[in-house]
Design goal:
Length: about 450
């Protein structure tokens, strides 16, 4: 465990930046509080260098139901329906003093379905997970906002996505004012593999692949296609799960013993685990059953098939009925970090029995939360907590990181190079494309050149 209460409470997402700073999203308002602005972004640090966090700073507060965070430019992007926000600390006191709204117009409906998980893609677009509004029967005051046009607020003549797009995920480039809808949707979480294939999930489906991105459909608006996605699991929709919970406390009105809250899908790209967990695997959080599930992906035509690695057991389980894994993150050390929301009640009252709602324990555990680090048995303590120097690396040094076996280093090096717009990087990037023995290094170099506006057809 690298962090727990009282240092953090109600964690749902995290991000480690190029200096080794850990940002954590605290969603205190779930399930019904949309009025008090209780959500926070917390900046954690390891003051004594022992690999565990021991200092808490509130980086940003006053948020409604924040879901996710991503490092961008000199600050962070945060999803908090109906907005996508940007926060920056310009005076280096550990607290954001600049706040900007990058996008607006998303639905503020059931928190399990709100806009979430910004990811920096190989193609230098930021991808946002989204499923659209979920009509509420009982909580119209809290969750009656079904969304509108998705826009760059305050920017006339910029692109807009109509409400018809509100049920799909999106991608955007803030500085270029580019905004596009996806051909798929996802509930909480989406993830890329190392080649840029995009995967989503929803309650009972632990993984589907966006086979045909929307940009291909845009080439021919008259093309008829029944689906853009492919379900991957060979163990059925709503597969059986194998919890180890003592005295399970269930409020949800669905079948027991099957996947019913799949979220936080994460493709493992850390190159740190032993086989078979080291390549082509996805981790899925299942908070209702207090566990994390793992699948291995195998190519199957234009898509993939996902299969169990472990028979009749799960990657991670808890005997504690309040343990609620909701998300996972692959760090610079290659470890998997599990965010445990730790609540007695994880279901929305919209789908709970009246008896469970009247019990009055909807917020039990709101003062608790944990982040676990999972690594191989012989692994040393994490050293990134003492600080990283990637953010101070020369452009030539960043180019070298594009060959790193851990995706965290590759994608952050690419992001920093594109952000710097340093033309001195063009020569070493071109050299890497031509001579590197790493296919992934060549791939990142090509996309970095594209992001710098220096990719040519000859290369």
């Amino acid at each position: 465990m690298i962090a727990s209460e009282p240092l953090i409470t109600d964690p749902v997402d995290m991000e480690i930046d190029e200096f080794g700073r850990l940002y954590v999203v605290e969603m205190h308002g779930y399930p019904l509080d949309t009025k008090t602005g209780s959500g926070n972004i917390i900046l954690l640090s390891d003051e004594d260098g022992d690999g565990n966090m021991d200092k808490r700073t509130v980086f940003a507060d006053g948020l409604t139901l924040p879901t996710s965070v991503m490092r961008w430019k000199k600050g962070i992007i945060v999803t908090d329906a109906p907005h996508v926000l940007y926060f920056e600390d310009t005076d280096n006191d550990g607290k954001a003093n600049l706040r900007d709204t990058l996008l607006s117009g998303f639905a503020l409906s059931n928190p399990q379905h709100n806009v979430n998980t910004p990811i920096y893609g190989l193609d230098n677009w930021i991808y946002i997970a989204h499923e659209g509004s979920v009509t509420t029967r009982e909580y119209k005051e809290e969750f009656g906002d079904e969304g509108s046009e998705i826009i760059f607020p305050g920017v006339p003549n910029s692109p807009k996505l109509s409400i018809n797009a509100n049920g799909r995920s999106i991608r955007f480039q803030p500085e270029q004012l580019k905004l596009e809808m996806s051909s798929s949707r996802t509930q909480f979480g989406h993830t890329f593999d190392e080649w840029g294939n995009l995967f989503g999930c929803n309650n009972s489906n632990q993984g589907y692949h966006e086979v045909i991105p929307n940009r291909y459909y845009d080439r021919n608006p008259d093309l008829l296609s029944s689906e853009a996605t492919q379900n991957m699991s060979d163990h059925l929709n709503a597969p059986e799960v194998f919890p180890t919970t003592n005295h399970p406390d269930r409020q949800i009105l669905t079948n027991v013993g099957v996947m019913t809250s799949a979220c936080g899908i994460t493709n493992y790209l850390g190159d740190f685990f032993p086989d078979p967990f080291n390549k082509n695997v996805t981790f899925i959080s299942e908070p209702v059953s207090n566990l994390v599930h793992v699948d291995i992906l195998k190519e199957n035509g234009a898509s993939f098939t996902s299969s169990r690695i472990l028979e009749n057991q799960e990657f991670l389980t808890s005997t504690d009925a309040w343990s609620r894994p909701v998300n996972t993150y692959v760090g610079p050390d290659g470890s998997i970090y599990v965010l445990d929301y730790y609540r007695r009640v994880i279901e929305s009252p919209e789908w709970m029995s009246e008896e469970a709602i009247k019990a009055g324990d909807l917020y039990d555990g709101h003062d608790k939360g944990r982040i676990y680090r999972i690594s191989p048995k012989d692994a040393k303590k994490a050293v990134w907590t003492k600080g990283l120097k990637l953010g101070n690396e020369t452009s030539e040094g960043l180019v070298k990181q594009l060959e790193n076996k851990n995706y965290w280093w590759r994608i952050n090096a690419q992001r920093l190079l594109v952000d710097r717009v340093d033309k001195s990087a063009v020569a070493p990037l071109t050299e890497l494309v031509k001579k590197s023995k790493s296919p992934l290094g060549r791939l990142h170099a090509l996309w970095t050149l594209e992001g710098l506006g220096e990719l040519n057809s000859t290369l």
